[in-house]
């Protein structure tokens, strides 16, 4: 019984990257994601952290950028101390607030257009409504893509400039990001507290979507 327990413990340590590899084989690409329950807990923690940082709404981009970097470190089994998350928040906060303010203003304008289109007060209401929803999808795509590309060294300008190239290089990934934003919106609309786990899942999705093709290669 003792030997079986030791064998299972060694197997778990090998999968997580915390222990030695018992067989000659390539290491797992994302050792931090091998423990599913621990990954679920990290998603919830990341969602909580992003929510706390994003309480002012305009600070949400900074929270997303820091949360995505925290999640990326976790799945790679790198140093993912919370001190590093808060250090990222401090670097991303003020410039990210400008990005958040622009995104908030665009979102409010688009929501107003959708509401007016549905009221029948505008000619061509159905077309305007479609344009409004497409605009919201674009805002969400830019926000998630830029947050995923942000680094303390390059800053927000470089992250925003990288968005068009990323969309062209991986259009299917862009659609996945839009679907991710839709999931967060629907979950929050159904029950506001669900924003916390949903935004944590969004941070994990931003990490996973760009590398999915590498996993199939």
Automatic annotation (TrEMBL):
Task: Show the segment(s) annotated as Disordered.
Answer: 1-24
Q: What is this protein called?
A: DUF624 domain-containing protein
Bilayer-crossing residues are 43-68, 89-110, 130-150, 162-184, 190-211
Q: Which UniProt keywords apply?
A: Membrane, Transmembrane, Transmembrane helix
User: Where does the record place Basic and acidic residues bias?
Assistant: 1-14
